[in-house]
Every structure is written in structure tokens, then in C-alpha cells.
Amino acid sequence: MADEDVEWPPPELLALLNVSTRDDFEEQQRLANCLVDRGGDIALASFLIALKHSDHRVRWEGARGLGLLRDPRALGPLLQALKDERWEVREQAALALGKLGDLRAVPALAAAWEDNAEDSDVREAAGKALLDIKEALDAAE
Length: 141
Hints:
- By secondary structure, the chain is mainly alpha-helical.
- It has helices at 11-17, 25-38, 40-50, 56-69, 75-81, 87-100, 106-115, 120-140.
């Protein structure tokens, strides 16, 4: 289905933005996966909106969704999310940047690796992202 044939905002986005408890985590992931399956501009816009939500769990899902989409237009917003106040969002942003495979993310990921010594999950995600980018470059040669 073409993006112009889709209702805006998609019902999955509205439901995702209204998830407010830990008990809804599986539903949150299901809704985000539906958006990933849609793909295109609608999914990208939905995850960019989620990335700016006040609830860190929704921002986490926004970062995860952008990584799954692998849309290069998500680079800037994911770089910003790498500075989020919550480690969970920074971790997911780092993993998503690795999936994009864009060399422009390397300085920010290296800084995240160095700056998050106390947040081992973020540090590990930044290291994995750097390796993912290296592997993508090696595969392209």
C-alpha cells in the first residue's frame, strides 16, 4: 500500500504513544513491529515522533524502530538520541546507528563508548555499533 493511501496518523502510532506502563511492553513492541512492516515515510515519521515522546519507553521503541527501518534519514535524530537522559534510549540509539552502517555516526559512537564507562549497556551497544559499521564497510569492499 502506498503511503498516500494510509490514514495519518496511523493507529499503531497513536496506540504506541499511549503506552504508559511496563505491563504494555509486549504490546508496545507489537505496535512498533507493525509500523516497521509498513515501512516507508509513514513508519519513519511515526518513529521520529516516538523518539521525541516524554516517556522513555516510547523513545526507546522509536530508536529501535528507526534501526529496524535502516533509513539513512534517521541518522541525525538517532545521533541526538545518543545524548538522551535515559541510558535505555542511548543504548537503543547506538544499536540503531550500527544498523544504519553510516560512517558519519562513528565519532558520536566513539564518544558514547568513552563517555558511558559507568553505563556498561550503553558502552557495549556503542562498541557493537562500531563493529557493525566496520563489518558493513568490509562487506561493501
